[in-house]
Amino acid sequence: MSEALDTALAICGGVAAVGNGLVFLTAGVAKLRNRQVFPGVVANYRLLPDALVEPVAAVLPLAEVLIGAALLGGVAFAAVPAAALLLAFAAAMAVNIGRGRAHIDCGCGRSELRQPLSRTLVARNLVLAGLLVPAAFAVPGFGSAGWGIALAGGLALYLLTLLLNALAALAAGPLAVERNSR
Predict the structure, then answer these.
(1) What is the pLDDT along the chain (182 residues), one digit of tens a residue?
(2) Cβ count near 72 (within 10 Å)
(3) Which residues share a beta bridge with 116?
(4) Of 52, 152, 155, 164, which Cα lies nearest the Cα of 110?
(5) Which residues of 140-179 are buried (b: 16+ CB within 10 A; e: fewer)?
(6) How far apart are CA 55 and CA 95, in angstroms?
(7) Which residues pair with 105 in a beta bridge?
(8) CA nearest to 38, candidates 68, 22, 61, 20
């Protein structure tokens, strides 16, 4: 029974690693593509001293790419900094929502789908961080049946994350606001 439980936990860890790895990788690459505007997004959160905005804006996308690649590569320890970043992002969003600044862009890396801060985004980050707990302990071996299942599940998790992001952005967009004001 213990072997079955270990396998199941490894598969869950693999699903979280693949799904989160893709989220981090694509967000980091998108931020690198828009690196000229990303410092403004970081500054908009009003959580860092001015002297730290540029260095954080320069390092964060690279860290996301490296963490994403490590998660996709099966490096179990990568779950720790990934979860820490997700929790930090959730806290930064929650602080700004609490300050009445939900109108700022989340900076999630998708400039074509600008998103104001929301409790949905905070919850998304908390869920993604929580899903990484088993990934910190085990992921299936590359090429195993468990790895194939984890890959499929991770792709599904990533696509679900994209869908939820799109729906949240559309719900907060100008067309939804206009429709709700009638």
Answers:
(1) 588 888 888 999 999 999 999 999 999 999 999 889 999 999 999 999 999 999 999 999 999 999 999 999 989 899 999 999 999 999 999 999 999 999 998 888 665 557 788 898 999 999 999 999 999 988 888 888 889 999 999 999 999 998 887 787 777 666 665 555 55
(2) 19
(3) 105
(4) 164
(5) beeeeebbebbbebbeebbeebeeebeebbeebeeeeeee
(6) 21
(7) 116
(8) 61
